[in-house]
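Notes from the 1:1 (GR / supervisor)

We went over the backlog. Supervisor wanted to see one worked example end to end before approving the batch request, so GR pasted a single chain during the call. The sequence is below; no edits were made to it. Supervisor asked that the structure be written out right there so they could see what the output format looks like.
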Amino acid sequence: MDRRDELDWKMVREHPAEDYRVFRVHRREALHPRTGAVHTFSIIRSSDWVNVVALTPDDQVVLVRQYRHGTGRQSLEIPGGMVDPGESPLEAAQRELREETGYATARWIDLGMVEPNPAIQTNRCHTWLALDAERVGELELDPGEVLVVETTPLSAVADLVRSGAITHALVVAAFYHFLVHAGGWRRPA
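Structure output shown during the call:
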């Protein structure tokens, strides 16, 4: 017998609890698959997100540095953000790269997707590779955004992660997707 059949919980009901603009908290009541007892869980519903590993023609990675209120410090990251209603993940990636960095390209590769925290969140984070990205304009930041664009050699990214200069979990996951796709810290074929 496959024990995985014993893992699924049966939802009894779900209702909205709080709306925080960028995400909504729901309460879900579900039956324990073995005991039948009802348990209540908090679920965070949010739009899907995108991350962009942007590589310039001379193998520089485009990064953004910004203050993050959750940690109370600056964070070195790749461009990214929320997928807007009616927008595909690719369209969101193209928009976020352009808005946050002023860079653009016509060469896009879907690197994969992760679930940021499936214990409590319903959304996904899609990672895109933007090859031969070039600066084409000025930043178009949202009213609540303040960031600085930086570039670093692709060969230096592993050291940035290893040293703790890059700590954002979804950025580290994006670079893992890049490594798998490219077969190492090099421009993909």
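Supervisor's comment: The longest strand covers residues 10-19.
Batch request approved.
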